[in-house]
Each structure stands twice: as structure tokens, then as C-alpha cells.
């Protein structure tokens, strides 16, 4: 699956802080911009995985589930 999100970077001393406005709570940090970007990507993946698992817990047994691909 391919997703794209906006990454906002701020520098705080020797650290880069990154967050994504589309995914509340997703942020990353690192000594380099690339490290902050990678940490942000990992945070986004974890948040989306958790949201999917949490949402699917309430799905009744026996329903049909399919994957929908959105191409922008």
C-alpha cells in the first residue's frame, strides 16, 4: 500500500522535529532531517495499524471485508 502524508520539520537546537498534520499524534525526531523523517514514517505506520485493528474489533462476524485502493 502506498500512502503520502505531509511532513512538517522544525529545528530545535541540534534536533529536527517532524509531524504530520493529517495524522494527529504522529511525530518523530532525530539528529538529522532524514532520521526525523524515518521516525515520523514509523509513527504514522503504527498509528494507522492501531486504528485499523481498533476499528475492526467492532465488525460483526460473517460480514464481507475487502481492500479498497485509492489512487490520487
Query: What's the arrangement of strands in the largest beta sheet?
Result: 1-2-3
Strand pairing plus helix content: what structural class? alpha+beta
Shape descriptor reads elongated
Uncertain stretches: none
C-alpha end-to-end distance: 13 Å
Mean pLDDT over the residues? 92
**Total number of beta strands:** 3
Question: How many helices?
Answer: 1
Q: Characterize the main sheet.
A: 3 strands, antiparallel
Proportion in β-strands: 15-25%
Order of helices and strands: EEEH
Compute the gyration radius: what is it?
16 Å
Percent of residues in helices comes to 25-40%
Describe the structure.
Helix content is 33%, strand content 19%. By secondary structure, the protein is α+β, with helices and mostly antiparallel strands. A hairpin with a 2-residue loop joins strand 1 and strand 2 (15-19). The longest helix is centred in the middle third of the chain and has 24 residues, at 33-56.
Blueprint (SSEs and pairs):
Blueprint: E1 8-12, E2 15-19, E3 27-30, H1 33-56
Antiparallel strand pairs: 1-2, 2-3
Short structural description:
With 72 residues, the protein is of the alpha+beta class.
List keywords for this structure.
72 residues, alpha+beta, 19% strand, elongated
Amino acid at each position: 500500500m502506498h500512502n503520502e502524508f505531509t511532513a512538517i520539520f522544525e529545528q530545535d537546537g541540534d534536533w529536527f522535529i517532524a509531524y504530520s498534520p493529517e495524522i494527529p499524534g504522529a511525530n518523530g525526531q532525530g539528529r538529522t532531517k532524514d532520521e526525523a523523517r524515518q521516525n515520523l514514517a514509523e509513527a504514522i505506520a503504527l498509528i494507522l495499524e492501531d486504528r485499523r485493528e481498533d476499528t475492526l474489533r467492532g465488525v460483526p462476524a460473517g460480514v464481507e471485508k475487502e481492500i479498497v485502493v485509492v489512487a490520487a
